[in-house]
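Technical annex, item 7. During the second reporting period the consortium partners agreed on a shared format for inverse folding records so that results from different sites could be compared directly. Each record opens with the tokenized structure and is followed by the designed sequence. A conforming record, contributed by the partner at site C, is shown below for reference.
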């Protein structure tokens, strides 16, 4: 009995990868083997960088809080320590947003913990 291949499934699998490679430069967008490798690598970078993105944002928030705290005469570490001591449960994302968009509210928080 001759070997039969499921060409419908094979075509669908290739089509899915080629759709993901849309917008890539050169042979990466239209040659199957090159596109497959490029898409697999891209998926790995995307997985890794979703985690790195969280790191980057946290460090950005810390920089913003530090700058705003120093404008109000306090270092970042002292400010965060006093927040914890006074049981003020605001996360860094919210504090950074206040520091940038509502400095008066941030100043009020600093005055409360001093």
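Designed sequence (site C submission):
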């Amino acid at each position: 009995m001759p070997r039969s291949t499921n060409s419908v499934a094979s075509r669908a699998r290739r089509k899915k990868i080629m759709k993901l490679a849309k917008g890539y430069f050169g042979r990466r967008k239209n040659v199957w083997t090159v596109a497959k490798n490029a898409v697999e690598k891209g998926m790995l970078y995307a997985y890794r960088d979703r985690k790195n993105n969280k790191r980057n944002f946290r460090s950005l928030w810390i920089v913003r809080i530090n700058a705003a705290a120093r404008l109000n005469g306090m270092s970042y570490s002292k400010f965060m320590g006093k927040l914890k001591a006074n049981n003020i449960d605001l996360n860094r994302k919210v504090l950074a947003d206040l520091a940038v968009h509502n400095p008066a509210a941030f100043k009020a928080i600093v005055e409360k913990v001093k």
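The chain has a mean pLDDT of 95. The chain has one domain: 8-113. All partners now use this format for quarterly exchanges.
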